[in-house]
Write a structure and sequence with these properties.
heterodimer, A: 113 residues, alpha+beta, 3-stranded antiparallel β-sheet, 3 strands, 59% helix, B: 316 residues, mainly alpha, 14 helices, 77% helix, 0% strand, disordered N terminus
Amino acid sequence: MREPTFYVLAALLRGPLHGYAIMKRAEELSGGRVRLATGTLYTALDRLTAEGHVQLVSEESVGGRVRRTYGLTESGSAALRAEAVRMAEAAELVIGQARETKASPLTRKLRTT
Amino acid sequence: MSEGGHGDAGRLERRARWLLRAYPATYRADRGEEIIGTLLEAVPPGRDWPPSRETVALVASGLHARRAVNLRLGLAASLRQSAVAGAAVYLVQLPALGLGAVAWSARRGHLPFLFWFYEWLFYVLGVLALVILAAGWSGRRGLVAAGAAAAVIAAVSFTVVRQEWDLMVVLADFVGPPVVVFLLFARRMERPPLSLLWLPGLALGMALAESLANASPALFAATTAGTTFLSPYTTGLSLVTVLVAVCWLATDVRPLASLVFAFTVSRVVYGFAYGRPLVTVGPAVITLGITASLVAACALAWLLRRRIHASPPMTS
């Protein structure tokens, strides 16, 4: 799973969001690293919807414009969790060895979340 | 201030809509408003042009969506549409030569004389060519046949009256091949999209420019000399091929396929009509152009893929 995809799914963990909110949340969660462009976001949403990881939750009209809200599906949550486990295992390879000597910034972050 | 801000927002939205044209129309109808809404939220206030990051992503994603739509069309239907578009590209030579003669005469102040001579029949054929083009493009094969019949009647009556074969040559070289292609491949249900019309439009402009540059008032002199006719396909068109490929091949093979098709037809006709060897400098340039454009298109496709899947770049 690519990093932007991961953060799009992660942004939806706490509940359904609309397009711009997903972009903001992904940026926030990644500490400003993942800054999705609008086009990229919708390409990712299209793909994730086709794969069944994300679904359209609601549709409303804001200022005469359609605003759609997207949420995680069961399979989306599972895929996100599987990816997180994989990343944690990969991280453990490195951090597990460094833990005894000193806590790296990544370790601290992992421990607080 | 607030009025200026409002103006900026209006301009921004207009430009965003313009960029959104990179997406296929069906996609725009479904998602366009939503994407515009999100983009306007994402762009910091006071800007009247989306940041380059957003612009690139929008165009890249649009081309990506186009490619997805075009892949769904299937190979056989794509090739049939390419043949129809290629026939249109070939067919516009005729009206281009007529328009070129009119423009040339107007420049020289000869316009009043232009219609005195038998050239007017040439314009009749030119107009009929446009009718056949429209009919073929929209898949009305009956109308194609009717237009072709009218062209034959015009050419035959001219030949009988004047005892000159010029119009028959024009008919065989310029009208015949596209009509055959239209009758074989045009389908009402799978007409090429109107957006592809830019291709024959471009060919028309280039052929017009070439006939103007050659500055030959005598349309039929070109037939006998055998140089002006079809020659746009040996020079400028190869460059256009490169351009078309770079811009479109990543999303749609039809424009390139139709140009290759039009070029092949023109070489075959040229070979038959003038008995010249088919291998001239033209095909060499075209081959080079196609090769270069394939390489460029692959590079572009690769770049777009990277942009879409890995923007922003992976850091872990």
